[in-house]
Specification:
Blueprint (H helix, E strand, L loop, with lengths): L33 H15 L9 E3 L11 H5 L1 H15 L7 E4 L10 H13 L3 E4 L14 H17 L17
Parallel strand pairs: 1-2, 2-3
Length: about 180
């Protein structure tokens, strides 16, 4: 299942019109909640599969819209907000240890925020089922977004992580080493 939209925050004070926040009551409308839309998507897919769908892992890449240069409140609460989103998603699929594979924001991005990155890494070091791929050297298409080479690199690192964590079977790709928290 894929739920993707650019310019979104996990804090209602962050950048963008739609948010991943678990604080649904702080949004102007439930229509502003990507997390509620994702909930509906997951429940619809589970129902369509007659509950035979086995969700093995979650891929997450986000953080730019919670940067301190846009909202210091969003950056200050990023750790707690991200932890709440991951807890919510795990509860949604009834898997409290669901593996979550994430990536950091490129340090070349104008939207990179060291406070947000520190929060991501802290979560990954505290939770053995969160795997944070260091993308600090990711190259960019524009001032903010990965170019095709870095997007592919992140995807390939995620694939290898799935194999390392025994979520899937397969032959690992031969890739340059990066730090995975």
């Amino acid at each position: 299942m894929k739920c993707s939209e650019g310019g979104t925050s996990i804090d209602p004070t962050g950048d963008g019109d739609r948010h991943w926040t678990t604080h649904f009551d702080e949004l102007a409308s439930p229509d502003d909640s990507l997390l509620l839309a994702f909930t509906h998507l997951i429940k619809s897919c589970l129902a369509a599969s007659q509950q035979h769908l086995d969700i093995k892992a979650m891929l997450w890449h986000q953080g730019e819209a919670d940067r301190g240069s846009y909202s210091q409140t969003a950056a200050d609460h990023y750790y707690d907000n991200l932890k709440a989103v991951f807890t919510y998603c795990r509860q949604l699929v009834d898997k409290p240890t669901l593996p979550i594979i994430c990536g950091t924001v490129s340090h070349h991005s104008e939207q990179y925020d060291p406070q947000v990155e520190k929060s991501m890494i802290q979560l990954a070091t505290e939770d053995p089922n969160i795997h944070m791929i260091d993308m600090e050297n990711g190259t960019l298409l524009d001032a903010y977004h990965f170019d095709a080479k870095s997007a592919e690199f992140f995807g390939n690192q995620g694939f290898n992580c799935l194999i390392d964590q025994k979520i899937i079977e397969g032959k690992k790709l031969d890739l340059p080493a990066v730090k995975i928290y």
